[in-house]
Amino acid sequence: MTSCIPPPAASEPQHQTLAVDQVAGYWALSEAGGGSRCQLSLANLIIEGVRPVLVERCSVPAIAEAKSWRATTSGFELLSVDGAVVMTFRRTAVDAFEEAAGRYRLTRAPLS
Prior knowledge:
With 112 residues, the protein is mostly beta strands. It has one helix spanning 61-64, and strands spanning 25-31, 37-42, 51-56, 68-71, 75-79, 85-93, 96-99, 104-108.
């Protein structure tokens, strides 16, 4: 029998991480206390060795430059085009993540 779990991308750690389907999807980012907002789509597919990110309507330069993402043991990282970590998020609840410094929060966004 084969597994339905997608294989890790080349950019992902080769040890225990959050399941990709717990991270992949459409997300709404908000800044703690209001302010900046973005919409992110984290792909489940691996394209050219990475899982792509689509950032829309975003005024946060660090997030706007994200081109891919990878799962970690406690959340995920957004990566730049050269693979450098742009921002790290940790899981705080089902369908909720917080940026490591606590400045930004992600929640599942409704598909419109």
